[in-house]
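Here is one chain, start to finish.
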Amino acid sequence: MLQGGGFCPTLKSQDILDVMRQMEIPIVEEDLEKPTPQRVQIWFEAFLYILKGISLEQLGTSVELLDLTEYPESHSDDIFLMSFYQNMSTLLLQVGVDDFSLRDMLKPEPARVRRILSGVCNFAMFRDDRMPTLEKYTAQADEQAERLQSMQQELDQITQRIQAVQEQRAREMPRVTKLQEENRILRDELKEQLVTQTSL
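Its structure:
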């Protein structure tokens, strides 16, 4: 993942259109030539949801921004815009676009929009290329976790059996001690009888 200052090559129009359509984001070539704030907002909303899992409802309830004003109800549009901008800035910084501004949302220019879309599309393509590897390692990690859980359950069962045997042994210990004492007494008696018989 590129950080701020990272180089992000600008894609050809057709490449941008293809990747955006693969992400199921509505776009036509005219949108690239004459971007409108409404279209740009739709794309950015989709990027936030697809790449970060952030929905519009979550954007409108930014606790940090709500705390900054005494009357959050009267500033709900401003709060939404600032939350949207903050989240979009963070996303774009992560994909290599480090100079995103409110102007890119409110008065989009074709060259800047193409550069921003290129950054997101490059990241989406990179992510899709790496997804099989990630899924493979995720599956392996899940398998290991299940195996570990199974081993832990088996260990717990063995521990319970050992504890049960120890408890049973502790319960039987007085009886065993008594039997051992009786056995010692009988052995002593037997020895005495043997001595007596030998002397006869």
